[in-house]
Amino acid sequence: MIFHKILINWYLGNKRDLPWRKTSDPYRIWLSEIMLQQTRIEQGLPYYLSFTTSFPTVFDLANASQDEVLKLWQGLGYYSRARNLHETSKVVAYELDGKFPDNYKDLLKLKGIGDYTASAVASICYNEAAPVVDGNVYRVLARYFDIETPINSSAGQKEFKALATELMDKEDPATYNQANMEFGALQCKPQNPLCESCPLSNSCLALKNNKIAMLPVKLKKAKVKKRYFNYLVFLSEENETILEQRIGKGIWEGLYQFPLMESTSLIDAEALLAEPGLFPEGGEYNLKVSLYNDTPIIHKLSHQHIYTRFWIVENAELNTNTIPLSKIQEYPVPVLIANFISEFELDEY
C-alpha cells in the first residue's frame, strides 16, 4: 500500500471529532487554520467556538471593531494573527462580496495567509492538490525519509515542499492533508511517538536507523532577549485608572496596558519616582507607590522574555485618559495584565 493510502486509512479510523472537520465553508476553515498556527488544538478550540458564535459569518467579523476582535482573542497569543484576520475579513466581505478566493494562488494574496493556510483552504474547500506542510508534516516526512535538512532553513522548506507535492494524493487532497497533519499530532508525536503501533513502521527510515529522537532537525534560534517592564497601576479616589493602547509594530499592537516604563534591569521605587514625565505633574510628593510583586513575573515569548512588575500608585491626580475600574474587564489586554487584573480583583477595588 502506498504512502498516502496508508495515511488516509489510518486517519479514517483515528481522526478526532472537531467542528471544522464537519464543514467545507472557507470562512470556518480559514478561521480554524489561523487560530491553530503555533497553537495546540486543546487551547484553540474554545476560541474557535467563541469566534464562530460571536461572528458566524465573515460579514459579522468584518463589521466588528478591532477591540472586540482582540478581546475575544485575548490569551491566545501572537496577536498579529487576530489583526490580520480582521483586516482580511474586511477585504473578503467588502471587496469580494463575502466569497473567499477559490484557489491557492489567489488565497496567498490575502493578508495573513501564507503557504500553509492557502494550501489548507484550497485543498479542504476547493479540492485543489496543494500540499500542506506544517510542523506535524515536517516531522512525519523527516522521520519517514530520514531527512536531516533543517526544517527552518530555506533549503529545507523547499525540499520538504517538493517532497510533499510528490506524495500528494491528487484525487482526495482534502482528506490526505488532514490525515498527514493528524498523523503527526497523534501518532508521530514530537516526544514518545507511537512507533510500535505505527502503520508506517516497516518502511520508516528513521526507525530503522534509530534516529527518531534526532529528527526533524532545526537550526538554533537567536538568543532570547531580556526586557524589564514596569507597569504603573494608578488608583484614584474616584475609582478610576489609566489604560493606554499600544501602538507601533511591536508586541501586543492594539492591546491596552497600564502606563509602562521599560528599564534595563529591575529597579526600586526611588528610581521609578525619579523617572521624568512618568507621573502627573504636581502630585509627585503626595503619591503612595508600592510594589505589588517583588519577584517579577516572567512572560516568555518566542524571541524575548519579559520580566514584569506591577507598581500600585495611589493618591495621583488623574486628569486624562481615565477609565472606571468597573469597566477594566471590557478592554483587550495582554494575558499577563489580564492575570494581574483577575488576581488583584482590580474591577472590585
- Strand residue content: 5-15%
* CATH topology group of the largest domain: Endonuclease III, domain 1
**Main sheet properties:** 5 strands, mixed
| CATH domain class name of the largest domain | Mainly Alpha
| Rg result | 24 Å
CATH superfamily of the largest domain: Hypothetical protein, domain 2
Order of helices and strands: HHHHHHHHHHHHEEEEEHEEEEH
Question: Would you tell me the structural class of the helices and strands?
Answer: alpha+beta
Overall pLDDT, averaged? 92
Distance between the termini: 66 Å
Q: How would you name the oligomeric state of the polypeptide chains in this document?
A: single chain
**Which regions contain 5 or more consecutive residues with pLDDT less than 50?**
none
State the share of residues found in helices, binned by percent. Answer: 25-40%
Helix tally equals 14
**Overall body shape:** globular
Domain HhH-GPD: 35-186
Catalytic activity: Hydrolyzes free adenine bases from 7,8-dihydro-8-oxoguanine:adenine mismatched double-stranded DNA, leaving an apurinic site
GO molecular function: 4 iron, 4 sulfur cluster binding; 8-oxo-7,8-dihydroguanine DNA N-glycosylase activity; adenine/guanine mispair binding; metal ion binding; oxidized purine DNA binding; purine-specific mismatch base pair DNA N-glycosylase activity
Function: Adenine glycosylase active on G-A mispairs. MutY also corrects error-prone DNA synthesis past GO lesions which are due to the oxidatively damaged form of guanine: 7,8-dihydro-8-oxoguanine (8-oxo-dGTP).
